[in-house]
Amino acid sequence: MLLRSVGSKRLFSSSSQRCSNIGMKAILVPQEVSIEIQPLKQSIIKRKGRSLLTLSQQAKVKGP
What we know:
Layout: H1 2-27, H2 31-47, H3 50-62
Helix pairs in contact: 2-3
């Protein structure tokens, strides 16, 4: 039981970190901008492709 819960928690945290890292690399913007865009990021993950490019362009415009 303990091993299972610890394993699932560890897997969950690593996967969430991995997703955020992939998002940061794909967008290439500071954390502040990515936090503003987070709600949009979910829709982009569903659409992928062109949406990700448009999001990166918006991020560059918003970013410093």
